[in-house]
Amino acid sequence: MFTRMSDIDRMFGAMDLLRKRMDRLFTDHDASWLYGPDLTRRSDTPRTNLLENGDNYEVQAEVPGISKEDLNIKIQGNYLEISGKRTVDNPDGYKAHRNEIAGNTFSRSFTLPDEVDANRVEATLKDGILYLTLPKSEAAKPKQITIH
Asked: The pTM is what?
């Protein structure tokens, strides 16, 4: 009797494992092959690099086709939020035969390893890349302790 219950438990365990793996297949990976590049999760959010050079964090975010007026950057403590919108309009007098460039909005947020001095943050937009220089707050910088 225990053997049969054990076999049933193993069977349901294997089915549960298969279901979880199938769920991950459609949620964890870029599913552009299923829906096309416009409907994937990644297409709405800019790819971002976060670097550190001692006193500063450097953020590079891909935002092609988005003007600086359509970008918003918020910093509070060690929380960074970048949001924006891309608008794509056909010029007056033109008939569209193909529209692959989609307008969209996005919002990305990051928890940085340390707090940032929000008053000294610099932002530059060049060639579709947003560059942020985020100086660490004085409290977050390492201090040399003198031994007396």
From this structure: 0.65
